[in-house]
Amino acid sequence: MTTEERYEEARKMYQELGVDTDAALGTLKKVPISMHCWQGDDVTGFDQEGPLTGGIQTTGNYPGKARTPEELMADIDKVLSLVPGKHRLNLHASYAIFGEGEWVDRDKIEPKHFKKWVDFAKERGMGLDFNPTLFSHRMVKDNLTLSSPDKNVRDFWIAHCKACIRISEYFATELGTPCLMNIWIPDGYKDIPADRISPRRRFMESLDEILTQEYDKKKVLICLESKVFGIGMESYTVGSSEFTMNYAMSRKILPLMDNGHYHPTEVVSDKIPSLLLFYDKIALHITRPVRWDSDHVVLFDDETKEIAKEIVRNDALDRVCFGLDFFDASINRISAWTVGMRNFQKALLYALLSPNKKLQELQETGKLTELMMLQEEVKTYPFGAVWDEFCKMNGVPEREEWYKEVEKYEQDILSKRA
Ligand code: RNT
Ligand code: ZN
Fold it and tell me: What is the pLDDT averaged over residues 101-115?
């Protein structure tokens, strides 16, 4: 059977369930996912030579990591050719591209240091998102940045974040689409702190100072990412969930939830509807924590599906900024990226193909037996046939076909990188 024939069968089956597969495909096509640039080079960046710090870690040393902006861009292009739809690119400040012999520190970066990325995005009709980089740098003192007791340290990072707002606005202006700028700090303590409030107060004041930077709120969406712990910061993090939610709400910025940043039995899927009641827009880092905030590649697993469902069934696709955040250095990086991107799209499609109205009705009318039955039956509907059609209509390889391209790319390009 051809893809069309299989899709036609699937279409009819879903139709009987009251689900319009054509509409689902049309909706999915319009959802951009912000692809994180940092899967391509293990979060190394181009502005310094030190190790990855901040309590995050990549493990593995699979050959072929991108070493230059050109290599990273080529790798991103390869991934985008294997992922259906049109997406965005998420950059960190550490991916500044300096001219020959040029270098400035992070407090002095300017739009021009990102011009090559803007050109790259323009040529591909993509939007850019941005992140100040408050790790992997000598001005991170005792694991502290914006909450440091040392004013010089705080001032350096305040200047960095303000510079990043200006760069984000430049992205938005050049590309004609708002730029999401996410602030995440690693700050915390390995052991029981004697004072939990002072670092948080300083973080609050530093953020307030950053927000005095003038910017167009239609162009730059600033968000704040929380965290529960980091490596070497197991006992306390300054930017906890409560801090972040309350700060974001009171200052009218966006909260960002990374699903690797909660206690092991907490789920982001359950938090999404609560946030949707109180915020116009929220942001996500979709990742996969395995026992800790390990940033494994996103799979088509239960929680990823549940996250997508909470957004789709609440009609909130345009109120959520989707970004991926994982870094696996133990496998082919192009494949890691592609699997993660395709999987989150699958999760969205899976949610779009769920008879959401009907299920909701069953709950509201107390028909909980039937609700369980139907939720389970829907799981074995021919989802794959609809996904294949989506790949086909977007001109990317269907099913595992894309992997051949990765193997070829590894042979021709990645294996030649020393
Ligand atoms: C760290 C946060 C943060 C980073 C990226 C590189 O735990 O998740 O989002 O992963 O900024
Ligand atoms: Zn994150």
Answer: 97
